[in-house]
Specification:
Strand content: 25-35%
Largest sheet: 4 strands, antiparallel
Helix content: 10-25%
Radius of gyration: 47 Å
Mean pLDDT: 79
Order of helices and strands: HHEEHEEEEEHEEEEEEE
Low-confidence stretches: 57-90
Structural class: alpha+beta
Oligomer: single chain
Length: about 300
Amino acid sequence: MNGPDNGRQGDEFELDLRDWMARGAEAVRPAAVPYPEIVRQGRAELRNRRLAAAGAALVALAVVPVTALVFAGNGPGGGLAVVPVAGGGPTPSAAPPTPQAPPGPAAPATPGQLADGITLQEAADGLGLCLAYDRANAKSAAYEHPDLGKASEYRILLAHRSTGNNNSPGDGRYIVAVKEAPRQTRLICLIKDGTAQGLNTSVGGGADPGSGSVRPDMNGGKLYLQKLSSEGPWKLPYRWGSIGTVDPGVTRVTVSYGGATFEGAVDHGWFAATGLLDRSVTKAPRVKGYDAQGKQVYDSDQDKGYEKSLP
């Protein structure tokens, strides 16, 4: 039989028991997870693994033959194939080097200096024939003949077709080339049927101090005279050319021939012009030169040394 004191003691015991249980739970509760520390350790571990992998790759490159990946689209299954390119066995022998062609002449300053569809390569080939022709004839010459040099020393000044006449039947092409060193040299060469059939050269020093600022070539008639007046009518239309040297102050040259005026090219101290005649003429081309301000500084009609009429 429980009295009032026994009930109160039971209640106090229950309260004490609850307090003890709560304290025990607090004592065994786990501490908070140190998340930042775990992240730092994880990153450090990952970095160490990457360094180890990179080191292993370097060692592998030092001992494994170099390979190349190629796309084997036509092979079984297609995809990428590994092909050794150095080390690790025999490799295909290298192909023999392709022989290089000897250097040729420089191109003219303007495209119009190569007329009638003649290409730079064709003009260069023609120049080679001309130089070979000169060397062959120099051996049999009775007088000392200066060496004209190599094609690579020249620049093509003019190239156009030629029209044959009674003395030299058959059409061909003229090649005009110039060089400045070791001496100024100009050659006019006639090519017919793949061979050089005539060569005119001029090897000299500087210009005559008494000449004008433009100096038409004394042998330029080979380019613009088809035949003598006593040899009958010309074959028309007739392709002609005109060349010469100019002073540094001359920036423009015009050539009038057969009633028409043609713009010439000023090319490294030379001039070159070409055009077509549609009728026979008796007067030589008229050459005029101008400076950078457009002032006329030369007129062949006023040049006492210039032959103004055709023979």
